[in-house]
Automatic annotation (TrEMBL):
Keywords: Membrane, Transmembrane, Transmembrane helix. PANTHER family: CORA-MAGNESIUM AND COBALT TRANSPORTER, TRANSPORTER-RELATED. It is found in: Membrane. The lineage of its organism: Bacteria, Bacillati, Bacillota, Tissierellia, Tissierellales. Coiled coil: none annotated. Belongs to the CorA metal ion transporter (MIT) (TC 1.A.35) family. This is MIT family metal ion transporter CorA.
Length: 309
């Protein structure tokens, strides 16, 4: 799908005739749309095809003019409460317009459309690409906050009981944080290059937007590092709790085995075919039972005193 936009009355407006525009939005483009863009703007085909690869890493590419023509960033996509993935989005600057390419209709792009109007930014590709990059960093921050809420719920669950769901959620969250960490780390050089390329802009709004972009990216990386550290510590705590509970169970079972061994030994001794004390006594059985109970009771007291029961 292809959408074209221009500024009218300080609002981002979709171009109906496709003649007036400064932004081309390609969403999961078909082959015909790709061929038209490649033919018209004479850009390398990998600028567009790279986005179709889900594992494509962020990068900057400089074309013949010496200016950075491609900014490729990773952005987060929410799968469920604990699971996130990252996907690439391509921003191509050519002939004073911006071409964005993504594999699906992104919420953050809709957010850009709204904020672009609120901030009253101009009809230039630099401001638009900076705003998109800021929205991506902001989306990472928002996603990490949601993951932190899930981590807090897991903390409460782990302290109460060893829930298998909590364990599986921990694995999913760790996987999401690893993806976020890799994505923001790879996005960093791209954003720095963007700041370097746009730093000559005279507009106060553009300069402020560039500053906000750097701050938001730094905040996203710091939050991801903190959440990753918390998650690692929580995983260690969970493992220690499981080990402790297992040790307690084994300790109790071992103590019970020791106590139950006493009647077995007493019964084994008086079951031998040799002369034994009180073997002819009419109450010999009850005497042995009482003896076993007394010894077992004494052992239980010792085990309790030592903290094994």
């Amino acid at each position: 799908m292809e959408n074209k936009y221009y500024i009218e009355n300080n609002k981002l407006t979709m171009s109906e005739n496709g003649e007036k525009f400064f932004w081309i939005e390609l969403i999961n483009p078909n082959q015909q749309e790709i061929d038209e863009i490649l033919t018209k703007y004479k850009i390398p085909k990998d600028y567009i095809y790279s986005v179709l690869d889900d594992e494509e890493v962020p990068r900057v590419e400089v074309w013949e003019s010496g200016a950075a023509n491609l900014f490729l960033l990773s952005h987060p996509i929410k799968i469920n409460n604990c699971s996130y993935i990252t996907r690439p989005i391509s921003m191509i600057m050519v002939d004073g317009i911006l071409i964005t390419v993504s594999t699906e209709n992104l919420k953050l792009i809709n957010k850009v459309k709204n904020s672009y109007e609120e901030k009253g930014l101009g009809e230039d590709s630099e401001s638009l690409s900076t705003e998109i990059a800021w929205a991506i960093c902001s989306e990472f921050v928002k996603s990490v906050r949601e993951l932190n809420e899930s981590i807090e719920k897991i903390e409460k669950t782990v302290l109460k009981n060893s829930d298998e769901k909590a364990f599986s959620d921990m694995i999913v969250i760790q996987k999401s944080l690893i993806k976020f960490s890799m994505a923001t780390r790879e996005n960093g050089p791209v954003i720095e290059k963007m700041f370097e390329s746009y730093s000559k802009l005279k507009s106060d709004k553009a300069s402020e937007l560039l500053h906000d972009l750097l701050v938001e990216n730094k905040q996203a990386r710091v939050m991801i590092e903190e959440s990753t550290t918390i998650m690692e510590n929580l995983s260690d705590l969970y493992s220690n709790l499981i080990s402790h509970k297992l040790n307690v169970v084994m300790q109790v079972l071992t103590s019970i085995t020791i106590v139950m061994t006493v009647p077995t030994i007493v019964g084994g001794l008086w079951g031998m075919n040799v002369k034994l004390p009180i073997e002819n006594h009419p109450a010999a059985f009850w005497i042995l039972v009482l003896l076993s109970m007394v010894i077992s009771w004494y052992i239980v007291r010792i085990l309790k005193r030592k903290g094994y029961l």
